[in-house]
Amino acid sequence: MKLQRRQFLKSSAVITAGTVLLPGAYAVTKANRPRYQIGLSQYSLRAMFKDGSLDPLDYPAFSVDQFGINQLDLWEGGLPKDKLDDKKYLKQLKRRANKTNVELFLLMSGVLDASPQKREASLKQILPSLLRAQILRCEYVRVFLRVPGSDEAIGLEASVEALKPLSDAAAEKNVIIAIEPGASQLSQRGAFLAKVAKKLNHPACKLMPDFGKLRNNVYDGTSAMMPYTAAISCKMHSFDDNGNQPDFDYQRLMKIIDKAGYRGILAIEWEGQKLKPIPGVKASKKLIEASLKSIA
To answer: Nearest-CA neighbor of 281 among 66, 11, 3?
Structure first.
């Protein structure tokens, strides 16, 4: 499927986040899917990958069995370092996902540094992720954007110049870049990232709000990013006695997302310490489901 075709589908709201738009057997329509799908970030289970209790190849089946979630992102830090560029391993992981009807919708990559002195070297480090995503049939590659200084006008120009070659390279692989807040003062602001996306105006570059990484005002930042949003990272740190996230109001955030007309994946990213990974993810899912009911 041509990228221009993808752009048309996205703009007409027929396509939602989470399915790879690739030629032939890999092209999957999303028109009949629920407006929202709860996904899971591999980073939520990082402790289990680190201690060896969960093999990355078992991640798709584990997520379905434990949480009933079949929309997954992959974190490069959660895959064996010596297997990142092993095509046989990546294809094996994709087969495991297919076997359990799991879609690997996103690959979490690293930081793109927009400063002129570091831009080229930074780009070279991220480019391999595009091929990995293509092999895994991930629609998106998540990157952080590191913007130099605090001057918005200078930062905006630097960001666009850095993102243009990366977005062009992504388009060649039929992959879309999803910029997540963080990595620098300016890129922690949703309004700034929205300006970057608008000025760049590239079909292979979108945004990915992360409630835990937006600074100043998470609600205004999320709202500003929504017109350019590909997927959403539902960050969780802890829960109060009522099962709510004390850092921000999830019902309010879901209302913002709903009002913007977004449809796609709400990916759980559990980063808390008081609950272990499995109960942390389950509590996160419960909160998202309850918040969605409040806007039904």
So the answer is: 66
Question: By the 8 A CB rule, do 204 and 169 touch?
Answer: no
Alpha helices in 12-78 (DSSP H): 46-51, 59-67
Torsion angles phi and psi, residue 276, rounded to 5: -70, 170
Structure letter (DSSP) for residue 57: G
Residues 6+ apart with CB under 8 A from 49: 42, 56, 78
Antiparallel, parallel or unpaired: β 176-180 and 140-146: parallel
Name the pTM for this structure.
Answer: 0.90
Q: What whole-number distance in Å separates Cα of residue 181 and Cα of residue 143? A: 9
Which residues have C-beta within 8 Å of that of residue 218, sequence separation ≥ 6?
211, 248, 253
Task: Tell me the per-residue pLDDT of 14-39, one tens digit each, with 9 for 90 and over.
Answer: 333 333 333 333 344 566 789 999 99
Per residue in 190-201, pLDDT tens? Answer: 999 999 999 999
* Residue 145 · residue 177 · CB < 8 Å: no
Of 50, 53, 141, 67, residue with least CA distance to 102: 67
Dump pLDDT digits (tens) for 217-249. 999 999 999 999 999 999 999 999 999 999 999
Q: Which residues fall within 8 angstroms of residue 102, CB to CB, at 6 or more apart?
A: 60, 61, 63, 64, 70, 71, 72
Please report how the helices 218-225 and 190-200 are oriented relative to each other, as an axis angle in degrees rounded to 10. 10
Report the amino acid identity of residue 230. Answer: A
Unique residue bearing structure tokens 């300006």: 195
Which CATH number is 35-293's, of 3.30.230.10, 3.40.50.300, 3.20.20.150, 2.40.110.10? 3.20.20.150
